[in-house]
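Fold it.
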Amino acid sequence: MIKQNPKLTLLAFALLSFGISSVSGRIDQYFLDVILGIGINIILAVSLNLVNGYTGQFSLGHAGFMAVGAYTSAWMTTQILPKLLPNLASANAVVTSVAFMGTLLAGGVVAGVAGLIVGVPSLRLRGDYLAIVTLGFGEIIRVLLQNMEFVGGARGMTGIPSYTTFFWTYGLAALTVYVVTTMVHSTYGRGFLAVHDDEVAAEAMGINTTKYKVLAFVISSAFAGIAGGLYAHLKQYINPDGFNFMRSIEVVVMVILGGMGNTTGVILAAVLLTIMPELLRSFAEYRMILYSLMIIILMLVRPQGLFTLRRQYKEK
């Protein structure tokens, strides 16, 4: 059904998310926070998989694009919307939803533009060099945010309204999966996979590899920005240190653990790696050690990815 009717599947997920969202008030807040965190991580992991998995590049700056989207969206809801819509706090759900959707789109667009600015010069590089450039970008964003007082500086932003719901989180997660899957099975997807398999051969065949790499990077960055907006309006407080190098590494581990170029595996890995730290909270002082050891063992036992049986893009 997914392959034959992707739009129908997307609509079904959206309706299901809306139905669950309408009764989410009965769910314990701790469990709801974890569930929404899973959805946000799915968006981050699936979008990064487009670059690292399907296009064969290696980006370490996903947290930077997430930060751009988070701060853009949060700044709009705390500074811009109250001026444009003074009665937004008492407005009906439709008006609030449209306003929130606008801020998420703005966060995605700004993050996408940032991805374009970084991608055009850096994606002419390959391998380790690209990883270093994207890592540097992520750190630049974090330091800039620490010194921008109009967004809270090192103190972070507070007073962000709680707009993130089950519907928004999983509806956008389904949209991310839909867009990435559709693109991979389109003409553009053939270009992505050609770049992944052999960039030199692709160039020899007349394929503009930089174009495809930049396109994948911009789309990936835009969805990371949307995930950042959802994160900001879930936690209601954001700080530059929440988007550091380790945050990027967490998303990269989800992609590697799920299997590079395996969307289903990446989704399962995002679920597993979001739940695992919560399950280890009873071992508070050793939690991160156990978490790290489990990842090391999994990588030694299943270096091709825990959920990979075969490369999805080679299926016919």
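The two ends are 16 Å apart (CA to CA).
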